[in-house]
């Protein structure tokens, strides 16, 4: 394992290569001897920015924010009436706000990019369109916080710049609040990715400290970890920065394992899809960090960016999801995968990940089920491609202990399952285990599995037995007969639909390799006694 110095060196090396790749001609502003001699730098009317503790903790370098003029922050305003050509605001604007088509009914969404990014990126436009297209959002306003000139390397400078951009954004929100004669900021929702998440925290903190106003909500999309992990709450986004703070973690692994997302639970609600670290569809190609070259750089950036960027893809999909997008409260991801949290109850709260989480959280608050001073960690499984949303099932397979099964004996293979609803709509087929498993008569195998949603709970199951011969494993050798498995029953428990079905093979027949077998509940009746197994 790399030490702290090695991790810092790794970050600086990756950032150096990123600077080479993403060079935009924007001037960087490194610290000088005279900068270091200053303890504080002020930019009226936005306030003063210190370089003393706690801004020095867990940081290999320390910068002042560059000036507002150098940052050149632009706020692009989109509504249903102006989707393509935005009205551009600046932090100090007052009268121009009245000409920006802002509807005081709201809601107001602020979207912020992160390091090396800009407000012109497609993912921001896609998110803005999704929010404006949402049914009932005819009065919505989306404001893109474009601080691209301040998001360039060195990374430490970009980290410092978001402090000032956060304060500037707070002033703009205060001006909107005043010009539209609003009573509060409950309808204001800040959505930030990576460094942009912490930027939202600075914005929320400034609104409280300077204007005695509190943002309704901040959503952190894989908030950046370097320079923010294990710091005091003043330095990073935390749940005190808004009435409701929700986090989606997708790249929460140590920096020396190519992770840029923070792992700590820092919101009222923290979602950890697929454990919050490595996302399906994002392949680690075993990059060796010993030799740094352009090819290695491209591999690192591709791998890191896939996991890191998945957070905003998940949020955008959550605006109008294809299924419930449920996160389930559990002690840990391992406990979740073991099937310890498969029912939605007072001990395992279920909250949809993304845009619609706040409504459910508020209902839990009203019912006294949650404390706003504590954190709720929720876990889920998603797909590796769009649409990412999946529904969760606890699947229990019982291998028959019948005479036929014992005569057949143990076998090695994988069980594939496809769910079928009452309209004959089929889910994707999923394997209970990634590798071949040794199944013995009487064995019980339980797994938490996720499937594409058909819109209705399943009624029947298509089961396949996949078998591969391994020359080194005599158990897999089949000379005179096909490999098969005698399944007594499969029990399917739905978390989202709160249903349970038990299905069985017809006439207790085995599932033969590569031959799909339909299992139904009615096949579980034995000897006409109508006793369900």
From TrEMBL:
<feature type="active site" description="Charge relay system">
    <location>
        <position position="308"/>
    </location>
</feature>
<keyword id="KW-0964">Secreted</keyword>
<dbReference type="GO" id="GO:0004806">
    <property type="term" value="F:triacylglycerol lipase activity"/>
</dbReference>
<comment type="similarity">
    <text>Belongs to the AB hydrolase superfamily. Lipase family.</text>
</comment>
<feature type="binding site">
    <location>
        <position position="241"/>
    </location>
    <ligand>
        <name>Ca(2+)</name>
    </ligand>
</feature>
<protein>
    <recommendedName>
        <fullName>Lipase domain-containing protein</fullName>
    </recommendedName>
</protein>
<feature type="binding site">
    <location>
        <position position="238"/>
    </location>
    <ligand>
        <name>Ca(2+)</name>
    </ligand>
</feature>
<dbReference type="GO" id="GO:0016042">
    <property type="term" value="P:lipid catabolic process"/>
</dbReference>
<keyword id="KW-0106">Calcium</keyword>
<keyword id="KW-1015">Disulfide bond</keyword>
<feature type="active site" description="Nucleophile">
    <location>
        <position position="194"/>
    </location>
</feature>
<dbReference type="Pfam" id="PF00151">
    <property type="entry name" value="Lipase"/>
</dbReference>
<feature type="domain" description="Lipase">
    <location>
        <begin position="41"/>
        <end position="361"/>
    </location>
</feature>
<dbReference type="InterPro" id="IPR002331">
    <property type="entry name" value="Lipase_panc"/>
</dbReference>
<feature type="binding site">
    <location>
        <position position="236"/>
    </location>
    <ligand>
        <name>Ca(2+)</name>
    </ligand>
</feature>
<dbReference type="InterPro" id="IPR029058">
    <property type="entry name" value="AB_hydrolase_fold"/>
</dbReference>
<dbReference type="InterPro" id="IPR033906">
    <property type="entry name" value="Lipase_N"/>
</dbReference>
<dbReference type="GO" id="GO:0005615">
    <property type="term" value="C:extracellular space"/>
</dbReference>
<dbReference type="InterPro" id="IPR013818">
    <property type="entry name" value="Lipase"/>
</dbReference>
<dbReference type="GO" id="GO:0046872">
    <property type="term" value="F:metal ion binding"/>
</dbReference>
<dbReference type="InterPro" id="IPR016272">
    <property type="entry name" value="Lipase_LIPH"/>
</dbReference>
<feature type="active site" description="Charge relay system">
    <location>
        <position position="222"/>
    </location>
</feature>
<keyword id="KW-0479">Metal-binding</keyword>
<dbReference type="InterPro" id="IPR000734">
    <property type="entry name" value="TAG_lipase"/>
</dbReference>
